[in-house]
Structure formats: C-alpha cells, structure tokens
Predict the 3D structure of the following.
Amino acid sequence: MSIVNDARAIVKKLLEEKQLDGVLGLSCKHDEPVPFVFESPEEVDSLVLEPKWLFAKLAMNIVRTSPADFRLGIVCRGCDERALIELIKRNQLDEKRIHVIGMACSREQAEACLCTRPYPAIPHLGEKVQGVDPREEETAKAFLEGETIDRMQRWTKELARCIKCYGCRNSCPICVCVPCKLEDDLWVRRGEIPADMVSYHLIRAFHLSDTCVACGGCTDACPVGIPLMLLQIAMRESLAKEYEYEAGTDPGRLSPVLSDLFVEPCEVYEEPGWPDSFKVSDET
Amino acid sequence: MKLEFVKTICPYCGTGCGLLLQVRDSRVVTTLPDKKHPVAKGTLCIKGWAAHEFIHHPDRLTQPMLKKGDIFQPIPWDEAIGLAATKFKETAEKYGPDAVAGLSSAKCTNEDNYLFQKLIRAGFMTNNVDHCARLCHGPTAAAMSQALGSGAMTNSITDFVGADCIMMFGSNAAETHPIIMGEIYKGKDQGATLIVVDPRRTEVARNADIHLQIRPGSDIPLIGGMMRHILDNKLEAKEFIKERTEDFAELKNFLKEWSVRKASEECGISPDQLRQVAQIYARAGEAMIVFCMGITQHACGTANVFAICNLAMLCGHVGSAHSGICPLRGQNNVQGACDVGALPNVYPGYQSVADLVMKDKFERAWGRPLSDKPGMTVTEIISSSGTGIRALYIMAENPLLSDPNQNHVIESLPKLDFLVVQDIFLTETARFADLVLPGSCFAEKTGTFTNTERRIQLLHKVVDPPGDAKDDFTILCMLGRALGLDYDYTDPAQVMDEMAEVTPIMAGVHFNRLGSAGLQWPCPADDHPGTRFLHAGKFTRGKGLFVVPGYTPPKEMPDKDYPFTLITGRMFSHYHTGTMTRRSSFLNREVDKAFVEINPDDADAHGIQDGDKVRLSTRRGSISTTARITPRMNRGAIFAPFHFSEAPANALTIEELDPISKIPEFKACAASLVKE
Amino acid sequence: MMKDLKQDSNGVKSEAGNTPRVIVFACKWCGLIGADAAGRKHAQLPAGFRVIPVECASRIEADAVIRAFSSGIDGVIVLGCHLGGCRFNAANHRTAKKLKLLYPLLETVGIDSKRFLLSFGTAHEHHQFEDLINRFYQGLQRLAPMDAWSGSYLSEMGQR
Amino acid sequence: MAADIKIGCFLCRCYGEVSRVIDLDELQQEIIRFPWVAFCEIWDSLCLLENIDELTQKISESGTDRILLAACSPLARGDVILHALERHGINQASVELVDIREGCAWIHDNQPKEAMCKARDLINMGLSALKQREVSENQIIVPKREVLIIGAGPAGMSAAVSLARLGFAVHVLDRARNPGGLLNLLKRIAPEDIGAEEDLHGLHKAFTNNALVYYHPGARLISSNGSVGDFAVEFKTGDNLHSVRVGAVIIASGARVMFAKGLYRYTELDGVVSGIELERRFLSGDVRADNVVFIQCVGVRDVNSPYCSTICCPVSLKHARQLKDLNPQAEITILHRDIMCPGNILEAYYRDTMQDGVKFVRFDLNNPPSIVGDERLEGVNVFESVTGISRTIRADLVVLSSALVPHDDAARIAEIFDLALDPLGFYQVRTLMHPLETTRNGIFVCGSARWPVLARTAIVQGEAVAMKAFALLSQDSLAASGMSQFRDRKIAHAIVDRDACTGCGNCVAICPYVACALEPENGAFKSRVNIMRCTGCGSCVAVCPNGSIQLPEQNARVIGAMLKNAFS
C-alpha cells in the first residue's frame, strides 16, 4: 500500500515543481484502472500501480503527438523501462523528453512473469527482489527442455491453437513497424488460422531476438495461452553468454549483432577442414 | 496533451470482451484489451483489436436522407421523424396494425431494443417485431425454453475450466468466439476431453481429442445413436431423470428406431467411435455441451436442440457448476435483444404475448392496448412484404445479406409502401429504403449489452456520432413521442429501471450496480448477486422435459446437377455481413476477397486449382468467387463465408424454414462449382 | 498450392527418392564458386538441394530461412566467404552473428540445429563444398523427419 | 509485379553435356505452357561468338522484356554470355542465368530422374525470380579530374608526382612545413644504404616544381562530403579555409615513431637513446661510442601491440653499419627476438652486417634485457635464450630501435572520411584482394599509414595508388555500380521505401560502407541510401525489421518466389 503513496508523493512533487508536464500512469476512478496522463497534482490521488501495464508504446505515441516541449514522466516497471530504452535506441522516442519513475516488482509479480530482472535501473518505488530463472520454472521447463522431438510436438500443439489475433504483436512494447512483415503474404499466408505457424511465430520471435526485454506482454495477451515469451529465452541467453548483452539495460550500447567481429567478437566454431562453421555437423 | 481511455464492450461477437478505447481530440485512435474484464482477462481477438477502425470511416451516415426518385436527399431530423410517424400511422389505419412491422437489432443496446419493441407493440398494437436471433439461435430459444424453461446459455464461460468433458456441436469457436475458445482450451489442459462434431475439419477440430466429421445435418442420428448406446449400457443418470425430468418414456420410445448401427450409417461415423464418444460423455463427472450455428441453422434446428437437451438431461449433465448446455450467441447483444422482448411471441423477460395476464400487465405498464396475437418472424416479415406487411422499420440490420435466398429478398423489399432503415452505414438493405436515419455505433452510445453468458455489461459513450447522426436511443425517443408515446426518457438508465420493473429476471439490474464486471441475470432483486449457472437443483420450468426430436434430413440433398453440399458460415477476420469489418482496413487486409473452401480431391476431380476464379451455383442463384483448396473440408462438402457483398453466399442458400422456430437452413443446400 | 498438396502425396519427394529438401543460399563470391568447382569435377551429390545465389551472404534475412522451414523444407545452408575475406568489408560478420542467433530459436521449437548450417569460406574449394553437402545430408538422414511440423501440421494446413 | 511480363527462354544443350542427362525437349514442353513465357528454344550452344550475335538479334526481335538462359555456371561461360549481351545493350538485370550444367547435369548425372526434376525447379525459380525482379535506377556522375593526397612523405610525394605526370591536378596536404615526411629526419636510407637527400633528390625535384601539384604545408583537415568521383573536402592552412572538389582521395599520412618512455629506463639515463635520436646525432655528426647495444622490438610484438613494425630491424642494421664506418673498432651488439629481413636484398644486407663484425644476441619476451648502472649507463644485462646464459654487456650507448605506430591523427582523418581503422589503429583495407582500397570507394591508402614500410616500398605503393586513382578517374563517367562484379557486371544497390521506414537505424548501424544515413522527416527519422557509396551487399536488407529497404534486383519477393518454386 505504502508504495502507492510513495508513488503519488513523487508524482505530485514532480508536477508541482513543474519538472514534468505530465505523468503517465494508471488512474483508478470507480474501480477501473486505465492509463492516464496526470497533468495536475490534484488528479494524482487516483494513481495506482496494479495491474502490470506496459506503457512504452503508449508513451511513444503521447510524446510524438504532443508539443515539442512536453516532458512526460512514466511510472513504470523494469521491463517497461527497458522497453523505453530500446525504443530510444531505435529513434522512436526522444530520451530528453521522458523521465522514468521506476518501480520494482514484487516477488509474486516476478514469478508470474518469469522475470529475470524485476526492477528498473533506479527503483524509486518498492524493494528490489531477486529475479527468477525461467529455466527453473516447471511449465517453462516443459517447453524449453527435453528431446528435440518432444519440444517440437509440445510447441506444435500449442501454436496450432493460434487464432492470429495479432495480440502478441500489438501488445509488444517494441513492435512499432508499419507495415509489419507479419501482415505480408510473402512471409505469412493471410486469411488462415492457425496462423502460418512457423513463419508467423518464428519471424515475430526472431525480429525481437536482440530487442526483447522479456516483459511477457505477448504471453499475457494470448487468448489461447501460448507462452510466447519462452521463445525468446534461449536467444536472450545466448546474447548474454556471447556478448554480455541484455536488451534495454544500456542505452549507449547497440545490439552486438549489428557490429562486426572486430568490435564485438563472438565464438566462431571451427571444424577441421571446414572453417568458420557455426555448428557441429555430426558427433562422429 | 489529454490522453483518454474509455472502457466499453466489444461490438462483435457474443463473448462481450472488455475494450479500452483511446480517444485523441475526439477521435478513437486505438483499442486496448481490458485487463480487469471477467471474461477476456486482457486478451482480444483480431476483430477486437481492430474494433475502432470503422468508427470514423468516411462512409458513415451523417444525416437523415429521403429517397426522391432513385437518389437520396438529405432532410432535417424533425421532418424525417414526422414523415416516418405519419407514414406508419397511415399504414396502420389503412391496412390494420399488423401491416406494420419492425426489425430490431442485436447490435443495439438492451435499452434501444426495449424501446424499439415497445414502440412497435404499444405504438401500433402489433407484435410484428423480431431480429436476427431468428437466424442464429431462434431454435435454441424455442427448444431450450420449452425443455428447460430458459433459452440462454446455462453456465458461464469460465465454467469450462473444471469440466471433465466438453462436447462441441457445429461450433468453430476458434474463429467465431476466439476468447471463449481460449477458456475451452484451458479446460482441456486441465483434463477435459474435447470432442468436436463438425463436418469441417476446423481449427477446433484439429485441436480436439476426438473429431467426428459427420455428414452435414446428421446431428440427430448421431445424438440418437449416442443416447441409445447410453441406455443400452445403463449409463443414464437414473436419479436425475426420475427426480427432475418428465416424459422420459417417449424418448425411450423414440430411441427404439435409432440403433447405433443405423445412426452411424446416417451420420457417417464408425459405430465404435460413436460408442466411445457416448461413453466418454456419459461417464464424465461434469460435462459441457457447446453448440452453435451448426446445430440451429437447419430445417430441423429446433429438433436438433431438443436432441441436445435430451442428451444432457439423460446423463444429468445440466444444472451444476461445470456441466450444462452452452449455445454460443453470435451477436454482441443477441442475448439481450431476446431478453428485452424483441421477439414476436414474447414480451421482455420471455413473458408470452398470448398469456392474457402478461398482456394485461404490460398494458398497464405501458398504458396502451396491446395485441395478444404472436407477430411475424424476420423471414415471414420479409417474405410477406407488400402483401401482409406494408410498412417496415429496420434498425441496424442487413437482411439483404443475412437472410436466405437473397434474390427473393431483393424482390420483396421494393414491394413495401414504406421502408425506414436506421443504420450507421448505407448497407445493401438501406439502399432499398425510402427513409434512412443515421444511427450510432457502439462507441457513441451509453447502454448495456448482454453477452452469451447472460452478463449484462455497461458500455460508455466515447465519442459523439458523426455529423447530424444521433444515437439510436434519442432517435427512438423522438419517434416514440411523434407517435404519442410517453417516450420522454432523458437517460438510458431510466429505461433500464423501467425494464427492471416489468421483467422479473432483470428486476435487480440497474446501471449503478453494473460496475466493471456487470451482472448475470437472473437477478430478481436489488441485492441479488446475479446467477453464474441456471437450473441449479430445479429447472426454470420446474421439471426438465424430454421432447422427441423429429429428424428431417436436409431438404436439398446433392444430386448430379448440384453435386456438393454447401455450408455457409463465418471466418475469423470478418463479421456477419461485413458492414463493419469490411470497412476496417486491418481486417480487410487479412482477407479481402470472397472464397469457397473445397477438398483437394474434389478440386482435382473438377480441375480446379487454388486461387482459381470459380462460379458457385445453386437452384436459387450463383456467385463468382475464388477457390481455396484445403484438406479441412470433407469430400462432397464445400464452405462459403457470407461476409462478402460482392459474392453473397446468401444468394445461394435455401429458404427452407424450421417449422417451429422458422430458422432457414443455412447449413446445407445442394450446390455446383465450375471453374470460370 | 494445389501443386504443393500433390507434392505431399505423390510429387517430387517420392520421385526424388525422398532425398531431404535443402535450400542453399550461396554468396556469389565463395559459396557459388565452390558449387561451380564441385560441378566442374563432376562430383556426385544428392539431388535434393537447390542453390539460391545472392550477392553476399549478409543479404540473407533470418525470415527467409524461417520461411523455408515453414514451407516444409528439411534443411537450410547459408554459405559465405571466409570471415576474414568478405568482398564486402566484413559484411558477413554481421550475418554470422545474426544468423547464429537463429540456432537457439530453432532448437527451442524443436527444429534440430543440424537442419541449419551456417558456414563461411568455401570458395574455390570444391572438395569442401562436396564434403559439406554430403555431411549435411548425412546429418539430416540421421534426424527424425520434420513431420511434427510438416506432416501432422503443415500438410493439414495444406502447406508443403 | 507486372503479371503481363513476357519472358523468353533459351535452353542450352551444350552439345549434349546437358541434354544427355536432362530431357530438354520435355522441359521445353512444360515451360512453354506458362502464360508468362513468350517462347522457349533449345540451342546446341549459346556461348560461341556467332551464337551470341544470333541471340541478341533474336532477343531484340522477340520484344520480350526478360530473358532466361538455362546454361552453365556464370564462372564457366555464363558470364561471357551475359557480358556480351551487356555490350549489345541488354541490361543484365533483365537476364537470368540458370546453371543447369555444373549446378545440375554434371553433379547428378548418375540420377537422371532427380536431375530432370531439379532442372525443372531451377528453371521455375529463375522464371519466378525474373517476374519479381525490379531494376534499380542508376546514377551517373562525371568524376572530378583532381585528386587529394593527405601527407607528403615518400608515398604521398610519389603518388602526387606520378598522377601529375598523368595530367591530374593533385592537392597535397602536409601537416609538416616542407615535404619529405620522416625522410627529413634520416641521414641514410636502408637497405640501399644511400644518403637520404640524394635518394630523395629526384622525387623532391619532381614534386616541388610541378605545375600540377598544389602543395599545402601545415594543412589541417576540416571536413569531407560526397563520395567516389566527387568529394568536397575542406581544410585549413593557418587561419584560411580552403575547399576542393576532388574525384579521389589518397591517404599517405604515414606513421609516427614510437616514443619509448619508461622502457629500458629511456629518458632516465642519457646513454639510452632512440633510433631516431641516433639519426639526429648522425646528421649533426657527433657520435662517439665504443660499446653500443641495440635493443629490438621495443614496445611492439607484445600483448599490447601484437605486430611487427617491420622496419626496425633494417634500420638498426643500417645504424650498426654507420657506426662501424665511423669507428671500425666499435663493439656493436644487437639484442633481438628475431631479425626480420625478408627478401633477397634485406637478407644480403643482414649477412654483410654480420660480416662487419656486428654481434647478434637473441633474447626472449619473457625475460627481456635490463639496463645496468645507476646514475650513468654501464651496460645491458641479457639472458641469451639460445645458450641459456645470462650476462652483462658493457655499453656506453644503448639504442632502442624505434618502431612505427599509427599516427595520432589517423583516427581523426578516419572519422572525417568515415573510414574504418583496424584493431591496431592503421587504416583498414577492404580485403586481401583490394590491398590499397580503404573501406570506401574512391579513397585509397598507401605508405606507412596503411602499414609500416621502408621508404622504397612507400614510394612504390605511392605509384601503385596513383594508378588505382587514375584507373578510376580516367573513366568519363562513373555509374553507381557498387563493387565491380565478375567481369564488371552491374549489381544492385539498396533503395528505401520512405513511407515504410521506421527510422530504427539498424541499416545505419550495420552498413559496412557507411552508405545509409538517417534524415529527420516531420518528427520521425527516415533512412536514405547514398547509392554511390552502396555496394549492394544487402546487409541492411537483412536487418530491416519490416523490409522497407530492398535490393531491387534481388528484393524479398524474388527470394520468396524462388523459395516457393524451389520444390514444385
């Protein structure tokens, strides 16, 4: 409860001191939390922090459609902050015009999201809690471990339920492309469900490979409960392993896959008589 | 920079998901899911995500228009209303009250529908009011209210989680009710066996544990066979039958003729599979039946529903938390429209017009003499246009595309002396109107929708109607007053209160109680929390009634001229007559042209390749469309969605009506397919 | 797609003796030269692979690889120049890094990483190209078929 | 894509090489059925001269807009045909060459059935690719006939002189006051062992009084714009700003002599000097030393700078011999890790030095020599890695041979010209195959700026880049043709769909040629490609999130179509 009060206090202060022109957060009039831009300190009493809500894309639209001197504060969680940073890195958002009021998530929330990093860079609100390792979590295990063939069947079963609502894309804080490749017949056959599964989901997943901040927005938005976020885990891990890179943590650092091996080397697998190959062809 | 989010309800299917519409300088710019919504829980389907796209479409009607010669000319509101009122009055005086009829709308709020049916009933002393429920769940209402006492979905959407067996008849929920499908999958993951009965191998079917790909229209044999097997193996719920039902003997009697073998031959399913399914359903601790258009849209639709009720009662799978019968309603407010009496045979709350006590009650409530003669149904109204019916008032319906045998409709409508169409776009139907009134869409009105699980939910006004358009509530009030009714409401809430007074099942429903989660009727008192599932302990009608379902196979069987069975229906990115979805760029991009699905082997046999232009014909008419070759169709069956006005599937459908509920047989007619 | 469907039942696959279907994206400067050299010495190779020449391996977006898999292709090979010797100023480094990320993804959804080979430096070395194709095929032969995708799902969807 | 496109097909029997495996007649029957195929012919060969004339005639008569050739691989005769067609004015972008010989007939001739089916697919792929293909618009520029040379060392001077000799005006920027670069600090030159001034004389003369050479001493580079054929460069001499338009840029900015501070107590003891100081003493003529020890590989060939600066060994040999000349009795020892004297001339030079009695002692990196003596130099203690004995050598002069390191302003120049530096800080050259090209078209690098070299080599390289620049600028027009393909075949360059571009900057980050740039456009950013810089590698295409940047000749639809038809 106290967190909410802290939040309100901070936001009030920022608005009273005119440091910000507006603060984006959840406003709960008659028990319906909706996103809202608080512009006067009086309004702030209706500010709430639950449920988890991703503001990044919203913030982007607000900043874009508001006058050039409008400075927006955002009450957001770790994942959301990282999303904002990724948007800034992609020139979708001007960092000078936003101010993050960071909130650390509760342990429960972290577990619900399988979040490895349930806190922003500077948690103004709440206490940092340990992140969870998705690979430890039971349901996740079922999707990430076991024999290749089992994983294949597991995922086929899940993805075959896709109703192509585009919710995973729409709710993703980083997907901003218009037009989107997923709507293009060339990549994903239109007008059929389940969506042209391999293409739709893998292309979506891969486009976010070095951008995904593991906010879990896609999973939450899936009507048929496909744990889409799990598609990203392995790729995020490999980025972390190869380059100690995690999306959204360092505004100054571009994705390592965009640079050459001089700048950011990665392990190159060498097979005798078969130089510079990236995979073992056979154990024999 | 003002950012505004308004919570409201999705205008598409009967699931009634919560939406947040983002408004920027009085335009709706985006849709977000409502994370707190009891059903959707922060998810949406493709249509929901695009719900805002048609709101500000340039095609929106912005002012009343009168047809002079062949062209529409704008006229001021007072003139329009005055004209409508006088015309209707004249007609009623000249040809008697039953010459006037009204088609209400499952797209409009409960309040609108209530006012509409009251306007027709009290204004002209006729019961000629109906709406498109006739074309989807007419039989459901008829049969279920006769057998159980209530035509509504017995349980709640969330109740699928916890059932041991979920049996889906003729429902492609994955495309038509995606969010409900999500719940069903959840149920499946929690251990329910999912059995799907569908002549198409839909996505649902593919993801089911068992798929019975029966012949179109052979549901009764299937269910008959199942029931027979259940009886033969003493799997029926004897206690339940004894305590809570009547006329069981007659069912037994009827089942004599349905040996499993005969049944399996009729529906083209192996006897073993049929037995297996029967066992699974009967043995399940709690079992749900989901059914949809595949059951109802047949000439024996009502019988089909009876059969389903029988099956459920036979096994005692009704009236508890996770077992019941779930007709999935198609339109966002089709449930509500029925509840508030936009039906020719009942007053609000399913109170029969033939019942003089009720008539008396409503005459007192409305202060006008009423008719005790049940009115005409949609299909009857259309077909008797110009003969029985002289003046017709259509609110937000598009019979031209939604009703069977389009050509017939096209012939009938011009025969009317006077046709008023109130809609948001100039629909195919509206083009035939003498007077067009610009109405409002879901985002422009306050009121309530009732979703398929009887949940009455509040929607809030987000933006003003475009131009001179007014919200339907206001229009109806104006018209009502012009007809001398006491229509001086200022706020839909008052209408809801009035409804509460006259309809017991909604007696406790008031705007201020609805909040974000809404209320599920029956809600008889102001302190009643609403009802999650019906028939607990005792059926609404007292004892459950076994009604013998008379089986009639589809009227038109394939022959050598018309070798295919044509099934019509919906697909995921479009909605009904496409008035809204075809105007949403995103949805229309997903599927922008009509198609007909055909089995690869059939295609081969007819030398048709994927994407070919083909001519699809029946005895009624023929359309040009594109072939989509997919193994999801059985041999001999083809499927065409009816969203596309350029290739209207209902130019083909047969006008064969179900004797009781008067629903047309959309789901089966003989067709031929040739490459163009 | 009509054609494709027929493929499943009685088309190329059976005709081509069920050799796995492989797409080879080859950069004009190395992969293609390798292939050409193999051709000149009449090396006998499995017939199931199709070469798509590109200017530089760096042009290959992962989407194309994914699209290939989604249309039921059993394996994809991307060939570029030696990581030291790209004609385009180390453009292939980016490909190496970007496409390397595809392995974890494919593995996650159960597409064996043996189905995707990312190799740099096969210019003028026909033995290498030959060897590479043959060993890749050996790899594929040892794998369970893509049926969980291509059979039960894709074919039902009427895809190849 | 235009559905009404008409394609003409030519299948080549190659005198049976193809047709003995693949039944071309059957293929012809199948191909001709496609509505978009105008005609399909089978020829015995396409590549002979007379064929080609016939071919071109046929094509121009048929009036088809795309041509498919099913023949051999581009490396066999394919490119000959394409090139010939090009000469007859048939744009290569409208021709697709399908390799059914090396790519199919020859590698599957023991399995004709599969080969047949593969050939069918390959041709289908070709056809579909042709249908989807677009042709990127071309940009022609007339190159400026002037060249900018940065640096007036031996490399720069020789480049300038040879270009001037070819009639090109050259602007030479020099950070020093007078030309010559490092040579001005030297007395003699290794290995030729001649006086610097006399050696330089000719070059110097040709350079200084040359009407076409504009020498700008004390110049400082400010900015650069444009691309190959037309660079606009600004620089300052003193306070006045000059700007020149040149067709090519040659970087000969040289390298710097390492200042070995803190190594071997350099700058602490007077006895310890660097090679370049020794040179100064030679010039001034006051060198008195009886026991001299040279130490090699100072500050190089270790973890920090893991390279051999290549010139230090010859230089030390030179110094040793000079000392011997002055004082034959002098005891001279060279402490080295390996003597790097490749090539016959340097090898000979090394032997002669040995014969002169100069001693060579080998040490290794792990225990390097150490200076003995507290306030005044006494000797050098060295552990001989060969014998394993450690001893002290008397010395009154210790010379630390001076390695060359990248010049301080290399980074600055690189930034101004958007060039890449290699990890050591020397200029990155494009590839092994293009040793003098930098990572940008029209900008060349030579001399020690590229890699430490001896004067002679620098001069040779200068002449070489001069030829490169000449070859480039002597064309009357340059097309945006990216890198020259096999036989200068034109290839695509990327174009951006400005409406679709989200301005994410991936293309900018990844482009190896700095050809993409972001431009602000009503609030957002849009990418734009400088097609003169673009080489059409397509890196940007691969990372563009929504395919708004494309190579027209091989756009996504082409790849998609080929994939679709790969197995049909």
